[in-house]
Amino acid sequence: MSVTTLTMNGTLVSAAEGATLLAVAREHHIPIPTLCHFEGLSEVGACRLCLVEVEGSNRLQAACMTKAVEGMTVTTNSETLRSYRRQIVELLLAERNHVCAVCVANHTCELQNLAVSMGVHHVRYEPQAPQLSMDASHPRWILDHNRCVLCTRCVRVCDEIEGAHTWDLMGRGRHTLVISDLHEPWGQSESCTSCGKCVRVCPTGALFEKGTSATNKDPHFVTYLKMAREQKLWNR
Amino acid sequence: MESLTRPRVATVWLGGCSGCHMSLLDLDERLLDLAERMHLVYSPFMDIKQFPEHVDIALVEGAVANEDNARLLRLVRSRTAVLVAFGDCAVAGNVTALRNPLGDPMPVLARSYGTDTSRIPGVGANAGSVPPLVPKVHMLRSLVAVDYYLPGCPPPADLIFFVLSELVAGRTLNLQSRATLG
Asked: What is the pTM of this model?
């Protein structure tokens, strides 16, 4: 396997051929914030939080979608990048009804955690306050469009891991909605296997278990699965 | 410190549940410590009706839900040097603004009081009994300039103590990653 060498934040780093800038950064413990990225799923570059500066390019590049190239010079943290990332988090918070205090994911939400880490204490934009529905037709889980950031983790995990492809997107821009099957109630979906993977990968309170009250969503299940697999807890 | 030279501090309660003020009371004995370094001139904890002139620091809890909130907020702004949005409702609208997606206060009032408008306070024949609701709930920064944001529902007592201590000492506030919405 050939190795690529590039410069990241002034330091020479090596990367496996074909690795993304995000993978290289993670391997070298260089922090880059992400929201739509989920280990084990394909990359879509939807959230734009992992934008980095690549020397010789006048556009910012999504680290999750950009392959490391020999001799590349990359900056993952600058005043420009920090300012754009803050702006993205604020726009996400203003777009739908993210009312942290009464959300199931309060204090375990990846969007909220990003806001904390970036020092976002308020939102500069007028909240859009769209009137969005909830789908509680499934016997076990609820989809709340008010908290959705359109990261499409649910769409990808359902398609790529479970192989059901129950979820997809409908509409464009801020009117985009995650829908089940051909926009039917989730509970009536014929393709849904009720595996619950979508609920586990959702970074916010958009997908959650029925009976969950504010601040009660458990975000640790996937971490447990990964740890169990790495430590071979299931091998006899 | 001579009481006349201490910073004049006010706390204001707009459209909120008063939870932020309860969290302020959670400072417990630290309130005595603060009391020696500032002069509380207006608060729901005091028997005072008029917002005074020449206030140095005002912590404003709650969003603007009705016309009285809007009037008081503008008065507070005009008489205060440093205005702090105190808690999530003041910072972002939060629970007080949950009605905004419905577009108008009437569906909310009808849901609570029924469709018979003669039973709804502040509406129709009952006008004047309570301040009329504004069509849309506003976070503070939508109506006035806000100097600092102290998020949280409610903000933890330790954070309130930090913020008051810094501001009373005349320092610039920098919360960085200490504070969170929710």
From this structure: 0.93
